[in-house]
Amino acid sequence: MTCREFADFMMDYLSGELPSESRALFDHHLSLCANCRKYLTSYDETVTLGKRAFDDEEAALPADVPEQLVKAILAARRSA
Ligand SMILES: [Zn+2]
After folding, report:
1. How far, in Å, is the centroid of ligand 1 from the Cα of 1?
2. Which of 6, 10, 28, 69 has the least C-beta neighbours within 10 A?
3. Where are the domains of the chain?
């Protein structure tokens, strides 16, 4: 698996929708690649922040969350 493929799979991985064989490849890449570990951690934190904000309508999104990412999270929530 390449870093690019890893990034493509990441949303499915975090939502638990990745088939177990893809998940194994994903985990393997994660164990080898520090860059993707960092990327996954920051992505996961952003998603968590986003969910918290959406759970509480009063909560403001952190200013440093990219608008594109917020839109992606909203789209993922709509399809869930
Ligand atoms: Zn990687």
Report:
1. 8
2. 28
3. 3-79
- Looking at residue 56, what DSSP letter applies? S
pLDDT mean for each 10 residues of the chain (80 residues) = 91 87 93 94 84 65 74 81
Amino acid at 19: P
**Distance from the CA of 54 to the center of ligand 1, in angstroms?**
30
Ion ligand 1, residue ranges at CB < 5 A: 3, 33, 36
pTM over 0.90: no
CA 23 to centroid of ligand 1, rounded, Å: 14
